[in-house]
Each structure stands twice: as C-alpha cells, then as structure tokens.
Amino acid sequence: MSVAIKVEDLSKAYQLGEIGTGTVSRDIERWLARVRGKEDPFLKVGEVNDRTVKGTSNIVWSLKDISFEIEQGDAVGIIGRNGAGKSTLLKILSRVTTPTQGVVKARGRIASLLEVGTGFHPELTGRENIYLNGAILGMRKKEITVKLDQIVDFSGVERYIDTPVKRYSSGMYVRLAFAVAAHLDSEILIVDEVLAVGDADFQAKCLGKMQDVSKGEGRTVLFVSHNTGSMVDLCKTGILLENGQMIMKDSIESTVSKYISRTSSEGSYKGAPKAEKPFIDEVRLLSDEEAGRNVFTTKERVNVDIRIDNLVNQPRNLTASIVVNDQFQKPIFASHLNLDDTKKERLGLKAVIPGDLLLPGIYYIKVILHIPFVEFIDNDADLIKFEVEDEDKTEHSIYKVSNVGVINSKTQWHVQ
Amino acid sequence: MSKTEVAKGSEHWDLVLRPQTSLFQLNLGAVWAYRDLLWLLVRRDFVSFYKQTILGPLWFFIQPLFTTVIYTFVFGGLAKISTGAVPGPLFYMAGITAWNYFADCITKTSTVFKDNANIFGKVYFPRLIMPLSLVLSNLVRFAVQMILFLLTMAWYYWGKGEHGFHFTAYIVLFPLVVLLMALQGLGLGMIVTALTTRYRDLALLVVFGVQLMMYSTTVVFPLSTVIEKFPKISWLVTYNPLTAVIETFRLGFLGSGTFTWGLLAYSIGATFLILFIGILTFNKVEKSFVDTV
Questions:
Q1: Partner-chain contact A2 B19, CB within 8 Å
Q2: Longest C-alpha distance within chain A, in Å?
Q3: Is B21 part of any domain?
Q4: DSSP code, position A39
Q5: Which range marks the domain in which residue B245 is found?
Q6: Of A14, A103, A119, the CB nearest to B119
Q7: How far apart are the first and last CA of chain A?
Q8: Mean of the per-residue pLDDT values of chain B
Q9: Which residue among A230, A262, A294 closes a domain?
Q10: A297: how many CB neighbours lie within 10 A of its CB?
Q11: Does A411 touch chain B (CB under 8 A)?
C-alpha cells in the first residue's frame, strides 16, 4: 500500500480578536522582520489553543506540529471536541487555507465536501446547478454529462430537475446537492459532517454511499463528525485531536474509546461561561438521596441535576435535552424540555430517568442546550459516564450487552 | 513491490502544500483545468441577471442611452465642449461604451473576495477563475452595448444624414483595445479586492474613485481639447493608461482622436504592469484570506 497523504509538522496560527485597528503598523513590523531575515514577531508568542483558558497573546495555534500518514484506500475518522482543530485540518487539506508551518503532500485528486451545495444558485434549474456545483467541486463538464442520470436518480428529484432550485423544499435541495458530491471521482475524499442532512431515509442512503466509497471503491476518505457512532461504522483508522495537537492515531475503535474517556467526566460537568448566551453551568448525577453518584443499581432512579445560567436574552424555543448513549456512543434515548415558560436568569432542572429501564452496563449522558433544528446554544458539555449494576442477579447478568441490548423490556411471557 | 520501488514511488507527489509558495507562481495550468467552471460561471451570471426581469437584456441598452442623453445635455449643451466634426451623442456614447466595460470590470472584480467568501471558504478551485469569469461575462454586456453604439452610428449616418464621422484603419486595433480595457479593469480590481480583505476602507474608495477616474480619461472630452486649453495639467489625462485606449477606440470607429504609437505602447506597458501587480497581490491574498475576512 502506498501513502496517499503525508502530513509533516503541520501548524496553523490564527489571530484572535479584532483585525483592523493596528493592522497597518503590525504588517509593516512583520514585513521589516522578514526583510531582516528574522522570525515573525507575532508567531513567537503563540500558545496552545485552549479556549477555556484566557490566553496572554492574541495568536493561538489552532494546529501545532501535526504529523501523520494516511494509506491509500484507508477510511480515516478525525475526532475531537469543538475547537480541537478538526475543521482547520480539513481546511488545510482541502486547500481552502494554507498552513503556517509544515508540509502536506498528497497523491491523486483531492475533493472536499465541507458543505453540500456550495455555489448553488437559486435562479438556476436543478440540472444547471448540477453542472455548476460539479464544476466547482472539480469535475469536467464531460464527466458530469456522463453521470447526470446517476446523479438525478440518486437525488430522487427527477420531476423537478428543470425547475429553479429556489422552488425546491430544503430537503430536495440537500438531496440534489449531496447527489452531486457523492458522484465525485477523486482519489481522496474529505467529508465534514455533511451526513447530518435530509430525512432518515436519505441519511441512510448517504451513509450507505459513503460506505461504498470507502470500502468498496478503494478510495481514501477522511471524515470529520461529532457522531462517533457512525464513525465506527464508516472508518478503519482514527485520529484524535485535542487543543490543536494530535493525541493518537490508531484503529477507530480505540481512538473513539480514548476520545470518550478523555471527554467524559466521572462525576459531573462544570461549564465555562459564554458571553451573551445561555450556557450549561453544571451537570451532576444524583441518587434519590441527593448524593453525587456514578453507579446506580437497575432499580434506582438516575437524577440528572442541571444548572443553566445567563438566560438574560433567552432565545425563543430554547430547549434543554438530555441524550443517553450506550458504551459505543450510540444514542439510546433522549428527552427534551422547552424552556419558553421560564423567566429566570439562572435555572435549575432535574431530569429523572426511571429505574427498571436500563440493563446493567456502561452509559453516557450528555446535556445539550439548543433551539431545535436551528442551532446549538451550548453543545460543549462533557459526556458523563455512569454505570448501572445488577442489584439482585437477575437473568440479565448472564447475557452480554452486545447480544441483548440495553433496555429492560419487562416483556410478559405466557406459556400456553 | 520491491523496497527500492517504494522509495522511488514515494518521491512523487501530485500535490504539495507549503506555507509560503512563490509569489510568481501563477498556476495557469490549474486555471485551464477548470475552464469548464469558467464558462458555467459566465453563463450563470448572464442567466441570473435577466431572469425575473421584464425587459431582460434590454436593460443593457437603457443605461448607456440615458447616460448619453445626459452627457450630451451637460457637457455639450451647457459646458459647450467641442467634439469636433463628430456628433456629440456619438462621441459620448463611444466613450461611455468603452468606459462602462472598464468600470464594470474593476467594480465587479474589486468585490470578488467579499462576495465569494462563502464559496472560497468551503471549496478549492483556482481563485483566478472568479475575476476571469466576471471580465468575460461583462464582455457579453459590452457586446450588446457595442451593437447599440453601431446602431446609433447607422441611424446618424443614414437617418439624419450626418457624415462627420467615418471608420478608419485603426479599427483593426479594436481587439487590442478590448483586451487592454479588460486587463486594466481586471488588474486594478484584483489589487483592490486583495487589499480590501484587510483594509475595508478601500471598498468605499472604489465607488467614487472610479467616478473620479472617468474625468481623467477622455470619456466626455477629446484629448486634443485638454492639451490645447490646459497644457500644464494635460499630462494627468495623457498618461492615464486608459486614455490612449479610448482615443484609439474613437479613432477607429469615428475617425476622431489623438493617437500616437508611443502612447499606445505606453498604455500596453502600463496595463501589463497593473496586471502583474494585480496577480501578485491576488495570489498572495488568496492563500490566506479565509482567515482574515
């Protein structure tokens, strides 16, 4: 196997805060330094990118000294929290921006999907947009003509193909856009969370297509997603980024579990204030006796204690959600509460997960503050790990979770 | 595969991304590879312009017609600037048609980075494609306005029986004239768009800067008049690289204009200098502008 992408000591610095005032004098200063053959004075003071700690300089390293190789035909998942440098890495690899230091070498064409439907023009018809979008993504007109039928077929919008896309529903729009992207012929494909589009049917179709691409067609694929569950299905290798540094590159399973162990906290989560936005201040798991705990018996209730702060300019439809995941980070269930009726600056919530619901095993819980289908207000809370233990050695203990699932179904049996 | 073959193979890379690539690297090969995109963008601009307008491409006519009427009234009627044997409206329309193309190229190009920040931030293609597509789609508009100009000429010649103007052999320079206008507009526009990613003030400057610049070219007056009446400041107009272009254009189509090969050569030189600086600044900025916009 040969190497498809080789990254050597890749770093990227960003300037924080206002760009504008003082830029002319700073530009001159940097230019003078370069002319005299000195190091850029504004890069020296850079520091590790940790957004929760207030830095002393306004240059941060979004990526710092990243080196790795990706084999041809590999499917690689890039994992990390918000601000870990995932998007920056993708942007550099897809040539949208340049590295500050280091080199990237690649074999074959790189096509990147940082967004679906880039360059779609509302006045043009579906067919015209297929050509335009395809060309923007690097396809020749001939290639598109050859694949036009496939693309239209995949998108499932045949009837509307000669209608301007401004008359499309948002679902149709996204289907068409993804269909174009899915038929790119590049040797290396870079995909950024675009799978979270369309209805469930279409999502499954996209996922299937992505699997074909990475497994069947032998192309090199790089994914970035928050959804570690689908990542395990799609990828072979994982790269874990944290604060702009590469923590590990290993099989996807061990990378995901490392990520989970690094981002989940044992007992509770303490949030950092966000300017002008509501944020999750604290999440704790409590027993019925109000004691902080992480191990519960099957019969016990799990009380999720949530504190939300800074609700001053509360956006409409603000919703608090809890999501409970299994040990592989696949969601089991979620529950939501609309906060429109609350009128307090600080808010305490308690979500009670009933007993006799989960089978023994390891679970993770995440609290999210969001406006449904519009935006995430606070999606930064750590996963909180908790364990459910068997209290009275029921029949469940002898089965493995992977065989019997996680729900205590309480199914009634009758022998007739 | 033997080990030596692997070692050999690992030396060849299709793509190498480094922090500082040479300023002079033009990547015309990449532009050529994306030529289909260029045509599709030109088509998009044209189609989206006249869709959902009642008059459609007729709008291309309206602006030069009205401007000509106003200039005829203000500069011919009130200021009484002589246009020689050539009827005033034809004189102005020639200037306006040429000037419009140049001005459209510069104003459209000068907002390339701002207008396409979203696309540029999401996908790679040679950025030069965008300004090139603008210059080409403006060419369509220019062609339509040229037809209007020729129709007006015909109407004056046969309809009104005025014969103070005629084609001259210099008309063969027309393709060169168009190229010079396009490249100057492109070059200046690229300089402005590259600088506006950091210094927004320039965007404001362009709007009235282009207006001011019009008065230092020979759109509303003949070069000969300036040299005769204001010999001391006539260099301002003479050495504007666009003056020679417009004068040549007028000489070719109307038979009136001050033309020397030296001035044209100067204009060509200046055009390539502007274009060179334009491509240089554009190249430098395109690699990092996503981070500063």
A1: no
A2: 93
A3: no
A4: P
A5: 56-287
A6: A119
A7: 61
A8: 83
A9: A262
A10: 14
A11: no
